[in-house]
Automatic annotation (TrEMBL):
This is DUF1911 domain-containing protein. SUPFAM superfamilies: PA2201 C-terminal domain-like. Coiled coil: none annotated. The lineage of its organism: Bacteria, Pseudomonadati, Pseudomonadota, Betaproteobacteria, Burkholderiales. InterPro entries: PA2201-like_C (IPR028983), PoNi_C (IPR015025), PoNi_N (IPR015024). Residues 56-185 form the PoNi N-terminal domain. Residues 195-305 form the PoNi C-terminal domain.
Amino acid sequence: MPTGHAPTTRWPISSRARRRRKALTRARTGCLVARFGWSSAAVFRAKQGQELLSAQYYKLNIRWLNLLIEENNKLDSSGITVDDVEFAGVLGSTFIERLNILKLKYTGGCTVEELNSLYADAVNALVQWHDAYRSHIKALALESGDDLREDGTPLHFEDLYHFQLAIDVISIGVLLGAGDAIRQVAHWTERYRGTDLLFESLIEPAISDPRDNTDFFHVSPYDPLIDAFYTVETPDEASAKVKEYLDGWYKSFEGAPWHDGHLHAVEGEYMPYYGYWSFEAAAVCLIHGIDDSSFRDHLLYPKDLADWARANRSLERLESGA
């Protein structure tokens, strides 16, 4: 497993950004309540992929996440220098909120065209976060005189939540056929290349330097999903393993910041729920040709995106120059 990472904040959301978030919760309530509205709740229910979110909270959440990003942008220009760890933390928060907006919009039934645009925003935020992180490490090395790695990533794969963020952004890229974006993520997470079997298998269709590896960081929840393409002997066994993975997915992430978000709505303000989706299950099925007919209606499986990926030859479009 990788060692020798330069010190940084453990979580990508800075303490300052968290404080501003709490203040916004109270200060912007009236504005948020006034801005929601679909033509009807029935129309929204017909569009959305999961039924844990009302039309009201969908719009409140969109507004809320955009406000968080706006506040982060203000912090970017408030005198924090690029080599300050706080700057990298703010940009980490922006990446997470961009990814949450993408998930929320997908849950609400947005078009693939809009999803592509949201994905580009999320990847761009990830790149900015990593660039700021490395600037901080360079400044820290100069100040301390220590020989610190300058090719690191603030995404610590050893941490389950961090690893899920990396797997999410790669898996969505696979389904959208976004090869260039996947190559960017692989570049910025180079420090972890060749250390995790699932991560390598997901980026392999888009890169020119696949790396053999049989290790992985997290037995739970990913073991059944890895078995689905690595140890099974028949197509039926592969499908059964993906189903097993989906069945255990939600419980395995207990303790993650997003877990049980649908149970913690702040009335009239926001709900910290953006959709529970196993994009990686669909990406694995696409890459390895696993039949999803026996579990495609699973609550956590993004079947429409998986269908779109197959119909639009996303796997072929991952290659460089495609």
